[in-house]
């Protein structure tokens, strides 16, 4: 890493870590949704909504710190992109849970649990990676694994779409379920965006 003579604002590291920890909370609520009956889903959606609001607060805190800091630990554009991408993950997870409740989905199609398991693994890896932003050490395996998980998520998503269009579901149900699995796929993409941004930061700072 380059040697710096100027001090840097270090609170960003803690805020990124807090944002990632909140995403882990969201991934656990997604896992909880899988085993919940319809009557319990509304309460899970409320907790997910609270977690999404906490994520918004974390993102706004990063932006406020960015706007008020003369010196930042890495490029301002990268800080903005990283914070926004972390926020996107939480937004997509909250949207998926909300859609399940709003559409009164009785049973999620087989394969959604695999999507959520991938997201939960990516959430754990992201939370583990954020503290390493201080030194930018031991991050290569993180972004390689998240990219692998995103490829796995793509395969799961394609299989889910094939399942939805196999004639088992009526047209309205297909539209509802497709929107849910598409949003979960967007969450996987957002995890990859975070990993790619971390890789960009590491390359710039090396």
Automatic annotation (TrEMBL):
Gene3D superfamilies: Phosphate transport system protein phou homolog 2, domain 2. Transmembrane segments: none annotated. InterPro entries: PhoU-like_sf, Put_Phosphate_transp_reg, UPF0111_domain. It comes from Streptomyces fuscichromogenes. This is Phosphate transport regulator. Belongs to the UPF0111 family. SUPFAM superfamilies: PhoU-like (SSF109755). Pfam families: PhoU_div.
